[in-house]
Design brief:
Layout lengths: L11 E14 L2 E14 L3 E5 L6 H8 L7 E10 L2 E2 L5 H7 L4 E4 L3 H4 L6 H12 L4 H14 L5 H4 L9 H13 L5 E5 L7 H18 L2 E6 L2 H7 L2 E6 L2 E7 H6 L4 H8 L50 H5 L5 E4 L2 E3 L17 H4 L7
Parallel strand pairs: 3-8, 3-9, 6-7, 7-8
Antiparallel strand pairs: 1-2, 1-4, 4-5, 9-10, 10-12, 11-12
Length: about 350
């Protein structure tokens, strides 16, 4: 998987330092992303996970400065190949977007222009950044669509987004994002709302393209099963902050933050100890995390997870003081006052054979 081969996987490509993205609302300032720090190295995949509303997508949009009008980046640095993207002029930033950094958005039907053909949308970046002629852009678009597994690409090029299925539209988004061979691909929930067969195809496609090109990926998702298959490192977000970060195998097998542990407990199991969800033998309800992610603008003193935490809900320290993200083991950090009490029970989301080509190459 990512990180293997001759690529310099140790070189940091993207470095996000203390990123703060705020929104001004009639009721006050909403700290949607509040001090996020992460790095993505060349040829590697970093997954950002968490429930809806935790700030994952806004972190991705902040990197490319694609925030809604009410949003602003209040602080931090976003270094890409050593250049701070927050200091670039609009013209300089346009030269990076879609060329050096590309993004696959969550909703392809909302992201694709319904008035433009597939050929026009896949070839747009090539004409803008590479100065391709219309004919050359069309030929390249057909080749890209064929590469991402879209059937009859010559015909699809002449069609419009509404004429394609959800899986086909997602492949078009990936083809458009990869047209200029970016160094970094940001994928925001690229398999959401797809059936499991198409999801597996999309993940395999991204993994294969990454191996070929040595590009890095920042993968936004809420699905820990997807994380186990595609990521080298995992960043767990909650209420705008990172609460745990570490290598995929270590974090999934021995999570240290109560929130990460709760996310893993809520996953269905097909085999192993416990109820058999296929046969229904011993069937019981999946554990759920009590409560909900704090409403935007609702400030919580102390640890932001403590109202939902079995360990910290009654602890004065957890209620009063917010913990810092602290390294507990090489590469594995956690923001929890209780983290040193020992790792929580993890899960094995993949069989050994399934994961053999993944983190062993990390």
């Amino acid at each position: 998987m990512p990180g293997a081969g001759s690529y310099n996987a140790c070189a940091v490509l993207l470095q996000v330092d203390d990123l703060r993205t705020y929104f001004e609302t009639p009721t006050g300032t909403v700290r949607a992303v509040d001090g996020v720090t992460l790095t993505v190295s060349r040829g590697r995949t970093v997954a950002v996970v968490g429930e809806s509303g935790c700030g994952k997508t806004l972190t991705a949009l902040s990197i490319l400065r694609l925030l809604p009008p009410a949003g602003r980046i209040a602080g931090g640095r976003i270094l890409f190949e050593g250049r701070d993207l927050l200091r670039l002029s609009p013209h300089e930033l346009r030269a990076v977007r879609g060329d050096r950094i590309a993004m696959v958005f969550q909703e392809p039907m909302a992201s694709l222009n319904p008035l433009l053909t597939i050929e026009q949308q896949v070839g747009e970046g090539l004409r803008l950044h590479r100065r391709f002629s219309r004919r050359a852009a069309r030929e390249r678009a057909v080749a890209l669509l064929r590469r991402v597994g879209l059937p009859a690409p010559e015909q699809r090029c002449r069609e419009y987004p509404h004429q394609l299925s959800g899986g086909m539209r997602q492949r078009v988004m990936i083809a458009a994002a990869l047209a200029c061979e970016p160094e970094l691909l940001i994928a925001d929930e690229p398999t959401t709302a797809l059936d499991v067969t198409v999801q597996a195809q999309i993940l395999a496609l991204l993994a294969g393209l990454q191996r070929e090109r040595g590009m890095a990926m920042l993968f936004i998702t809420h699905d820990l099963g997807v994380v186990a298959r595609i990521a080298d490192e995992v960043c767990v977000m909650y209420a705008g902050r990172l609460v745990e970060r570490g290598p995929t195998a270590a974090l999934l097998s021995a999570p240290r933050h109560p929130y990460t542990q709760a996310l893993l407990r809520s996953l269905p199991r097909l085999t192993g100890p416990g109820p058999d969800v296929c046969s229904g033998v011993g069937r019981r309800r999946l554990p759920v995390i009590a409560g909900e992610v704090p409403r935007p603008g609702h400030e919580i003193s102390g640890c932001r997870f403590h109202p939902r935490c079995d360990l910290g809900s009654a602890d004065p320290l957890c209620r009063r003081q917010e913990p810092a993200l602290t390294e507990l083991a090489p590469g594995h950090a956690c923001a929890c006052w209780k983290a040193n009490s020992g790792g929580g029970a993890g899960v094995r989301l993949l069989d050994d054979a399934d994961g053999a080509g993944h983190n062993s190459a990390s």
